[in-house]
Amino acid sequence: MNRKWLIMMSVLVTGGMLAGCSGGAATGGTSTAKEPAAGADKTPAKAIKIEVARPGGNLPKPEEDPLKQAIDKKLNVDFNMVMIGGSDYKNQINVRLAAGNYPDVFELEPGEIKSFADKGLLLDLTPYVPKLKPVLDFQGKEDFERGFIGGKQYAIGRDANLPFNTFLIRKDWLDKLGLKAPGTLEEFKAVAKAFTEQDPDGNGKKDTIGLTGFELDTFAPLFGSFGVGSPGNLYLKNDKLTDAMFDPMMKDALTYIKDLMDSGGVDMEYITNKNGLAIEKAYQGKAGIIYTGWQSFLRKDSEVKWKGVNPNAQWVQLASPKGPGGQFDASYDYGKAPQYFVISKAVEKDPAKLQKILDVFNYMASPEGLNLVSYGIEGRHYKLNGGKVEPTELMDTEGGYFSIYQMAGRKELEYLSTRFPYVEKELKFTNEQPRIKILNSYIYNYPAGFNKNDMDRFTKDEIIKFIHGKRPLTEYDQFLATLNSTFKNDAYLEHAAKLLKEKGILK
To answer: Exposed, middle or buried by CB within 10 Å (0-12, 13-18, 19+), for 300?
Structure first.
């Protein structure tokens, strides 16, 4: 048992005793209070206002939001979700913190959490772990520990998602050209080239391409065919910490991708494509293979978009081609929470508000609250049939924003199968694909003098040069030497190994 978990277990014992004395929600979803004496004023206490800041948008007005209203009524709170769009989020959070105008709860990335905590801006949740027992029980030890950063429980991380991405391919194009779904790397190259050269849409023009995508993610499953992670990934290989760039098979993977590029089967705009643009090209019938999430093509609202342009198109999932390193469908960071929620240090001065915040998280992890934030209002958005959730049409039309409230997480496969029962087979396929388990999310800070953004930018630029033939692969070892000498990648790996050993992941 590692030292960090011993600390948390000891806190659970002492904290549980304290919670028993304080009347806090040590084992339940909401706080309890003593019944007032006979004849005492039973006027309900004023609702406590809680402000949660999150990046994003598309939240209904409070008076039109049944989830907010249900949470408010259940917990006697005024739960105010503030959504801040795009890149403005981090700027606005920094401005608010600098001005002392703290949100009660807000989202941060792991590296930001350590930095903010060091400045004394975040509440150390370690003493409050006993009062988060419903969240801990729902998520399980491994998921809950994602919020344990820098030796303390500074965050409540939403339990992890399942992978969404696979290759998708135009089956109707394969049928038109008399080809089978590619199962090997050579077959994949041949199909991508045929989609470019053999007029699979039958319009008499050479206006189609094989593989499209977004930056180096375009080739993610092809790296997996060589048993290597995508550039920038850290993972264990033969029980040793491995940087994808230094993996002995990386050079072979780049050689294959260069050959694929040279064959003409790749959209040369993949470098400048935004992710949405690559998907749009596929919708419009300009590309026949793409690596993306199932929801972008197989969900009903997505299907309507591409069928409106190509009603006879048939998009199906495709496993990664078999290669010398296996058949990994890219890599996935199973240790990364989709979101990390922190509580402002200022809330500590208001114990009643703090307790209500903990109550909200616990309620969202309880069976009743989990149904609410997952499926909406019973009788309106879903019905229960023998304990099984059956969605109504209103879940689709009104439930697009429900995930914003899933702050403790959700039962992912059960949730997706309930919301989208028509893609149950595709969900199973996606979930069963083998993936390289990367460890980057555990590296929440960096050694002095190391700038990961600079190194990642240099790495990406050089990889593109290699696969476009702008730099010969005979210089690959020279490239690796530069990563160490100029960008201090060796110091980064040494630091990463230390953090992973502290987590008990690396021996």
So the answer is: exposed
Whether 146 contacts 340, CB under 8 Å: yes
At residue 21, the pLDDT reads 34
Please give, one letter per residue, the 3-state secondary structure of 236-287.
EECCEEEEHHHCCCHHHHHHHHHHHHHCCCECHHHHCCCHHHHHHHHHCCCE
Contacting residues for 75 by C-beta, under 8 A, at least 6 apart = 30, 356, 359, 360, 363
SS3 label, residue 408: coil
Rounded to 5 degrees, what are φ and ψ at 333? -95, 90
Please give the distance of CA 271 from its chain centroid, rounded to a whole number. Answer: 23
Place of tokens 């690596």: 291
pLDDT score at 42: 57
CA dist., res. 460 & res. 455, Å (int)? 9
Which residues touch 223 (CB under 8 Å, ≥6 apart)?
A: 229, 230, 244, 250, 253, 330, 331
Answer yes or no: is pLDDT of 28 > 90. Answer: no
H-helix or E-strand containing 13?
A: helix 3-22
Contact 194, 206 (CB under 8 A): no
Residue 468, Cβ neighbours under 10 Å: how many? 14
String of b and e for 46-62 (b: at least 16 CB within 10 Å)?
eebebbbbbbeeebeee
Crossing angle (nearest 10°) for helices 367-375 and 412-419: 40
Q: Which 8-state DSSP code applies to residue 63?
A: G
Sign of CA dihedral 48, 58, 272, 301: positive
Place of tokens 């907010």: 68
pLDDT band at residue 43 under the 50/70/90 scheme = low
Q: Which amino acid is at 174?
A: L
- In this predicted model, what pLDDT tens digit does every residue of 432-459 receive, in sequence order? 999 999 999 999 899 999 999 999 999 9
- The pLDDT confidence band at residue 14, using thresholds 50, 70 and 90, is very low
Read off the DSSP letter of residue 378.
B
Per-residue pLDDT band for 387 (boundaries 50, 70, 90) equals confident
**Predicted confidence (pLDDT) at residue 206 exceeds the cutoff of 90:** yes
For the ranges 26-30, 53-57, 109-113, 305-309, the lowest mean pLDDT is seen at: 26-30
- Determine if the pTM surpasses 0.90: no
Instruction: Find where tokens 């992912």 sit.
Output: 412
